[in-house]
UniProtKB/TrEMBL annotation, chain A:
Highest taxon of the lineage: Bacteria
Sequence similarity: Belongs to the leucine-binding protein family.
Domain called Leucine-binding protein: residue spans: 27-366
Signal peptide extent: 1-19
Name this polypeptide is given: Branched-chain amino acid ABC transporter substrate-binding protein
Coiled coil: none
InterPro entries documented for this protein: Leu-bd (IPR028081), Leu_Ile_Val-bd (IPR000709), Peripla_BP_I (IPR028082)
UniProt cross-references to Pfam families, sorted A to Z: Peripla_BP_6
Organism (species): Oceanispirochaeta crateris
Keyword annotations: Amino-acid transport, Signal, Transport
UniProtKB/TrEMBL annotation, chain B:
GO biological process: D-alanine transmembrane transport; L-alanine transport; L-isoleucine import across plasma membrane
Main location as per UniProt: membrane
A Pfam family this chain is assigned to: BPD_transp_2
Entry annotated with the keyword Cell inner membrane: yes
Record's GO cellular component terms: plasma membrane
Transmembrane portions of the chain: 6-32, 44-61, 67-87, 99-121, 146-169, 198-218, 276-295
GO molecular function, one term: L-phenylalanine transmembrane transporter activity
Name of protein: Branched-chain amino acid ABC transporter permease LivH
InterPro entries according to UniProt: ABC_transp_permease, BCAA_transport_permease
Membrane disposition: Multi-pass membrane protein
Keyword hit for Cell inner membrane: yes
Localization of this protein: Cell membrane
CDD domains: TM_PBP1_LivH_like
Length: 372, 302
């Protein structure tokens, strides 16, 4: 009796190991991690819904590699200390890839764990530049442009398209505006023959900006790059134009807002600003949004399209690779293009999406026009 | 040394100083007479700007001459804000006139927050464009790049206001009554001065100049929102303390010192420390001359 029990036990264990080890017959598991509760849930839940919609679509057509896809959804509350547990749980579930995490901090703490286990991770929303640029996380990809991509686009436009040589950089001293200005400054310093004639923070809410405008004029700058939001930008550009200082004004997506044009009026004409590439007319984006409304009865939330694109990219890579092997998926992500609501995308060597990012807009006749 | 740059900073500083002065007058006059820091004063400035925006917007529909619209809108702003000033005094300060000074101060802060939120709800939290009603004047060769129409208007208006105010205080009966009240309120009352009326007139004048400042600065920068009164109010208050609170020439001097410091500080050092310059000057003056530049030293009555 005892021997029989032991035999049974052994057979269970071996069968279990056999099932796990081979894994070709069961479902393909994909993890979805992010804030699904707590105060940042509104950033995480749209990703879950996006992944569900994509997976439903694939499963209805017979899944991928002839197997159904199963989502394993885990909450990290956007907290780095929780995210490590979330990552460990997903690994315990034998996921082949993870859509997530949502916040940069949580993503970073979970990434080390995925890296050790060779699990592909695609975030729809973590914009912190070093996640890809540092090279520390070869398993990491994202379908959103990093914070410094705007500065890249801006500086490239200012130097190569407008041919500017002397540029003044101002910012509003805030995290966002100053960060952007610092990225621009660093990039400009690497360009040969380009000089940053001044780099300063302005006083938000000051009564007027005539002193700083005088200083810009006196510095001999050929253009002004401003990092910050539209209230200061509209004040700056109005005072600049009133002082007959007619040099190009370049800014960021905090300024790519119709309020800027409304407030600065005629003075905003000709101003440049970077903003996310417009994908609202993309048929896949329209379909994804309609599907979301049909299934959940509401408009999709933040990063929905990015998560939708991330899920499509992962499943497409598995399909193209013909296996769930890490190296194969990794290679497929970096070589194969996939149609997503964000346009046709692939990933570069760092893991940043190619084709997702920022475009330059210019105020023309009272509205922002994307410059191709 | 680039002279043109120097003069453009000088003019910029004077412009800013003028705006501070128009607001600081209200602080210093009210303090001079009832020893109250009227923290709702910055909001009067903001309400002045909003009134001009609304009246100007309505008049623009009639197709009047823009300059005429500007004048009417400014007058409306001055009258409306003066009415606000008097009302605030009646509701929030008069009942507390014999209460401890701290109660009136808290009441002032309360009024300030109330007015901000009132305008926020009644209007919007967004920045609104202020119409550009003034024609671009062509200045002569040496100054054409140094000064804009709105700057010129600010400098001229401030000068006119200062002259009128000096005449009012030095040569009129009301001015004499104001000076008497500021010296000793009880004594003034004993000799037959209507102190309530004097205080009312003080609030009226202070609010009117602040409203004028609000209209001028809005047409200079071209935008307003409900929060503009806060920083301008704080800076003007600093200017009033700098010059010696209670002293009218002091407030004007303090405002120009502050405006020029900020302008030259930004121009020759860095705008990163613009606000710091103002407060460094304030601390230095308070250390070496606690009563402010032109302030009188008060003997504490025992």
């Amino acid at each position: 009796m005892k021997k029989l029990l032991v035999l049974l036990l052994i057979s269970f264990v071996t069968f279990g190991a056999f099932a796990n080890g081979q894994g070709e017959t069961g479902t393909i598991k994909i993890g979805v991690a992010g804030a699904h509760s707590g105060d940042l849930a509104s950033y995480g839940l749209p990703s879950v819904k996006a992944a569900e919609l994509v997976v439903e679509m694939y499963n209805a057509n017979g899944g991928v590699l002839g197997r159904q896809i199963e989502l394993v959804i885990e909450d990290d509350v956007c907290k780095p200390e929780v995210a490590t547990n979330t990552a460990a749980k997903l690994i315990g579930e034998n996921v082949v890839a993870v859509i997530g995490h949502i916040c940069s901090g949580a993503t970073k703490s979970a990434l080390g764990i995925y890296k050790d286990e060779n699990i592909i991770t695609v975030s729809p929303s973590a914009t912190n530049p070093p996640l890809t640029k540092s090279g520390d996380y070869p398993n990491f990809f994202r379908t959103i442009a990093p914070d410094d991509a705007q500065a890249d686009v801006e500086v490239d436009f200012a130097v190569n398209t407008l041919g500017l040589k002397k540029i003044a950089v101002l910012h509003d001293k805030g995290d966002y505006g100053k960060g952007f200005a610092e990225f621009c400054n660093a990039l400009l310093e690497n360009e040969s023959g380009v000089e940053v004639v001044m780099f300063e923070g302005i006083q938000v809410g000051a009564v007027d900006y005539s002193a700083i405008i005088n200083k810009v004029a006196n510095s001999g700058a050929e253009a002004l790059i401003f990092g910050g939001y539209h209230p200061e930008a509209s004040k700056l550009i109005s005072q600049m134009k009133k002082k007959n200082l007619d040099i190009p004004f370049l800014s960021d997506d905090g300024v790519k807002d119709d309020t800027f044009i409304k407030v600065a009026g005629e003075y905003s004409e000709g101003a440049y600003a970077t903003g996310p590439v417009d994908t609202t007319s993309n048929p896949l984006a329209i379909k994804a949004t309609e599907d979301h409304i049909a299934k959940y009865g509401e408009e999709p939330g933040a990063f929905f399209l990015n998560a939708y694109a991330a899920t499509l990219a992962v499943i497409n890579a598995i399909e193209k690779a013909g296996s769930t092997d890490y190296a194969a998926i990794d290679a497929a992500l970096k070589s194969e293009y996939v149609d997503t609501p964000l346009g046709k995308i692939s990933f570069d060597q760092n893991g940043d999406a190619i084709g997702v990012g920022f475009a330059i807009y210019q105020v023309q006749n009272g509205s922002y026009v994307e410059l191709k | 040394m680039n002279l043109e740059y120097f003069f453009s900073l000088l003019l910029g500083g004077l412009t800013r100083g003028s705006i501070y002065a128009l607001i600081a007058l209200g602080y210093t006059m009210v303090y001079g007479i009832i020893k109250l820091i009227n923290f709702a004063h910055g909001e009067i400035y903001m309400i002045g700007a909003f009134t001009a925006l609304i009246i100007g917007g309505a008049l623009a529909l009639t197709g009047l001459n823009p300059v005429l619209i500007f004048v009417i809108a400014s007058l409306a702003a001055i009258i409306y804000s003066a009415a606000y000033g008097i009302t605030i005094e009646k509701i929030a300060y008069r009942p507390l006139r014999n209460a401890p000074r701290l109660s009136a101060l808290i009441s002032a802060i309360g009024v300030s927050i109330f007015l901000q939120n009132y305008v926020l709800l009644a209007q919007t939290s967004d920045f609104l464009p202020f119409p550009n009603l003034l024609p671009s004047l062509k200045f002569l060769a040496p100054v054409e790049h140094l000064i804009s129409t709105s700057q010129f208007l600010i400098l001229v208006s401030t000068t006119v206001v200062m002259v009128l105010l000096t005449i009012l205080i030095k040569f009129t009966k009301m001015g004499k009554a104001m000076r008497a009240t500021s010296q000793d309120k009880d004594m003034a009352q004993l000799v037959g001065i209507n102190v309530d009326k004097v205080i009312m007139v003080t609030f009226l004048i202070g609010s009117a100049t602040a409203a004028l400042g609000g209209v001028l600065i809005s047409s200079h920068t071209g935008q307003i929102n409900f929060y503009i009164g806060f920083i301008a109010g704080i800076k003007a208050f600093v200017a009033a303390v700098l010059g010696g609170i209670g002293s009218i020439p002091g407030a004007v001097l303090g405002s120009f010192v502050l405006g020029l410091t900020e302008s030259f500080g930004t121009g020759y050092i860095s705008s990163d420390y613009e606000d710091a310059f103002a407060f460094i000057i304030l601390v230095l003056i308070l250390i070496f001359k606690p009563s402010g530049l032109l302030g009188r030293k008060e003997n504490e009555k025992v």
